[in-house]
Amino acid sequence: MTASCRVTAVALGDGAYALRFTLANDGSTEIEVPSYEPFVSFAVRASAGGVAVPVHEPALDIGVNPTTLRVPAGGTVQLETPVRLRLDAEPDTDGFEWTVPHPRDGLSVQVELRLPAPFDVPCAVALP
Amino acid sequence: MLSRATTVREQEQSPAPPMRRPVPAAGLHAGGNRAVSALFARLEDAPVAEAAPVAPAPAPVATSEQSVADAPAAAYIVPFDRAPLSAPGERIIFRARFTDPAPADYQLEYSTTGGVFTTVAGPTTVTVPGLDSGNVDFFLPTPWLGAPPVQVVLRVRKIADNSVSATHTWNFGLKTRVPTTITQQEGTGEISLPGVYTYDIGPAIVPLMPPFYEHQTILERFANWRLGNVAPADIAPAYRTAHGLTTADAVSRHFLGTYAGNNGTFTVNADDRIADRHGGHPDLRNLVANLVAPKDVEVELPQTYEAQPGVALGNYTVTRILKADGTTWKVKKG
In a 3-state reduction of DSSP, which class is residue B250? Predict the structure, then answer.
């Protein structure tokens, strides 16, 4: 595979996590894809015991800045997002606070990038 | 693979060419290649040791890659443009959010020369605990002819040792012309949520060459959202009676609560454009459960852009639509 993605969840306390994306290019040529700043071009899916758990994404209306992601050949790019994921929480009204009404134990989280190919890939998520 | 044609899934449309800026986007760090790492190790993110600020001053910088990696990572810093052009008395909205495992170890310090924060008679410094500033209102002086210079500095300070992990600086200039037209490039029909909308700022000024309005600040404001097509008769009678839902306004307040968007300041890019993203949605499970019959539910959010204080450049309505299946969300804007 030429392009891949992983997400590192940074525990912030109180069930909240920051998400840090690493886009990797295993190929021999640079990859460019259009994107926006801030980086919010992804969806979060959750499940527990094989059953989908809703992820609430409150309304967020913000200006964005078109940008180009350039991932060097054999290299990576790290992306920070202002979105925080809060577990075991009811829906919030802060558009940057996405919530999952399920505790950490037994929860599986997946992230889907909303980027053009070849970065239209699922991201493995490491929840500490 | 390089520069391949691309299509963005789920209606996050392919963006316009990126704005020409002297620094890479907040939230972006290159790795796995030292040359690229050096390219992105911008001075503004470098940590410095510094005494507590009284007035803004250029910060000395260190260039240790290790130290840069240890500093809180910038995830969102607005306004995007660090050399904005604004009008006298104009309200500018700043916001910054950084990521660190210990956000309580830091504080965000905004300071200014020439303007004020919070209100038109407010302070020249604002300090916010943690690494999320929330919206910080800033006001240009009035009258103001572009001199003396107006500057805003954001410092990320580590409380324990008083060191500054990052410094970001905005140097304001005066708008010498004001745009009077704004044109949405996308259609007004439904698209999947989230949607990104692009606006051309005009008019063109003959015989000048574009860009005509690059760097100019544009304030967006919202009115409270409302249910656009749900009347009391759409609500199950027992629920409607129990909660006194006798008017459309009462239905909106009951099921939606209050939300007036996330006001912000845009800056026009080198293509004379701004871009606006509308994502997420309210939690309408209770409404769906109490409808007389399934139907599309429209949530309307009125929005105004203005390029000079108090004068509307454009008025739009952002409409989020929960389809009758109760799970599919769309958006339209016009």
Answer: helix
Closest-CA residue of chain A to B73: A80
pTM: 0.86
Which CATH number covers residue A104?
Answer: 2.60.40
At B245, which CATH number?
A: 2.60.40
Q: Are B126 and B200 members of one domain?
A: no
- Residue A64 near chain B (CB below 8 Å): yes
Cβ pair A74:B266 closer than 8 A: no
Q: How far is CA B110 from CA A114, B56, B61, B170, B175, in A?
A: 33, 9, 18, 11, 23
| ipTM field | 0.95
A61–B303 CB contact, under 8 Å: yes
Strands A76-87 and A97-100: parallel
Query: B283 lies in which domain range?
Result: 181-333
Q: What is the pLDDT of residues A32-91, one digit of tens each?
A: 999 999 999 999 999 999 999 999 999 999 999 999 999 999 999 999 999 999 999 999
Q: Domain total for chain A? A: 1
CB-nearest to B280 from A33, A59, A65 is A59
Q: How far apart (Å, rounded) are the C-alpha atoms in residues A87 and B228?
A: 32
Spatial separation of the C-alpha atoms in residues B207 and A116, rounded to whole Å: 38
